[in-house]
TrEMBL record:
Signal peptide positions on this chain: 1-20
Keyword Membrane found: yes
Domain of life: Bacteria
InterPro entries: BatD
Keyword terms, alphabetized: Membrane, Signal, Transmembrane, Transmembrane helix
Protein's recorded name: Protein BatD
Stretches that traverse the bilayer: 449-467
Pfam families: BatD
Amino acid sequence: MKLKAYISLFLIVASTSFVAAQVKFEAKVSKTKLGINERLRVDFEMNTDGDNFNPPSFSDFTIVGGPNQSVSHSWINGVRSFTKTYSYFLAPKKTGTITINQATIEIEGEIYKTSPVAVQITSAVNRPNDPDNAEIVADDNLHLIAEISKGNPYLNEAVTVVYKLYVSEDIGVSTFREIDSPKYNDFWSQNIDLKGNKIQNIQFKGRPYRFLVIKQVVLYPQKSGKLEIEPLSLDVTVEVPSNRRDFFGGRMMSQVHKTVSAGSRSLQVKPLPEIGKPENFTGAVGNFDFKVTTSKTELNATESLQARLEVKGTGNLKLFQLPKLTLPSSLEVYEPEHTQNIRTTIDGMQGGIADSYTIVPQFKGKYPIPNVDFSYFDLKTESYKTVSSGELVINVLEGPTNSTHTDSNIATVGEGKQRVIMNNDQFAFVKSEANLKPISSEPFLNSSWFWSSFLLPLMAIPLAMVFRKKKAERRADVQGNKIRKADRLAKKYLGEARKSLGQKEAFYIALEKALHNYLKAKLHIETSDFSKDRIKELLLKRQVEESVIDEFVTILDSCELARYTPFSEVTMQHDYDKAAQTISVIDKQIR
């Protein structure tokens, strides 16, 4: 028995070793020594199909092509052969010995690895001027250029970088992609959308070329001195004519992958001059207009107005702060709302920014909004400019008088405040003893709750029948339903006015709007038809009594007069009640 067990074990090990010996997975390189300006092809080849291929990290290379997958089947003398290959095209990033680490793949449940491969990278090699070499032809006819609008800008001055790909008429380009994108450190940057980008013809290096704008970027330098712009690199698939001909005699094209770079560029950024710099300067550079406006100049106490500080023009609009608004202490001021309306074009930022302050006066009087200065550096004159808003005065017509000061324009806050002294009995309301009572242990079966839950559904049946009968009677009461509908409609349209009772202007605006909306809904007319004669004519046609129409018109007159004459809260309540009653009566009478 032991002999048979040994034989079985030997056969299993031998068969496993045989199968393992048949599987091949290896890495092959096109050359083991190459210049840094040359390309390396790496093939990962297997003779049995596998899954979950995992390539090594090509951190010392730029992948300019791949992975490309190819599969080959063949039968020779009844023997089947299979080959599957993953191919990469690599451009070295540095000189020296670089090791291509192991790749892995899963074949029939087993993990196989390639052996590491070392390649020697030398400095750039001189290649012979071979007109039949596709790579040489591509190098001589393909260029990526970065055009910079200004080499010595001021701090926060817009600089435009335009990347153009130049291609001679001797070759073609099928695809390209970015492989190294600039980070634009020390710059505020924004890409500009390329809309309607077209290929254009140009003379470049004394030869006819075509060029395409690949990328446009607007930069605002954020520090002075020498700043570097990192290079943009592209992987380009180039079609190069060869000496081979196809079946019809046409010239065949060779396809090669080329890496082109715009190269590193540098700017010498000038600092803004210190001589003449205003104290309130916050970094604005460009050409701007500045103004301060208010939504009202006259209002009553506790009403609100908007004060708006606005800057418009061309420059670094997103990169500076607006000046602050200083107001008398008797004016309650809320934090400003910042808004932007900026578009960034090839020439830089254009548009405007604004801070809107909500102001609520507390006392009657005249309140000045002091002059506000805004300073910026003008690039055309290379000097600082200051724009002043001028003083504005807010006249508060009605409200309490500030008795703490003789000058109603000045009011301070925080006077007369006392320190709060904590009471030692501040936690006296917390109970120290709980009044707990035991829960009754009476069984639920045959209890009062048991019989109630049993009988209540039976008692609900006659109640539901009575409710249904009352509902049918209510539905049949056409006149009563019309009256109730009219009352609901009046409350609906007058709801906003009711909320504004006590605030004369807001109340009468809401009341007038409610009356107009009611007429729109009932008479199907537009605002342009809201003349009193037209309203009378339409309501009379709909069989509304003339006295009711006169009441409605009187309420409209009150809404118009209320803006110019003093009205008490009693008068507002009277007008509200009259409007609700009139709308209800009209809705009952209208046909």
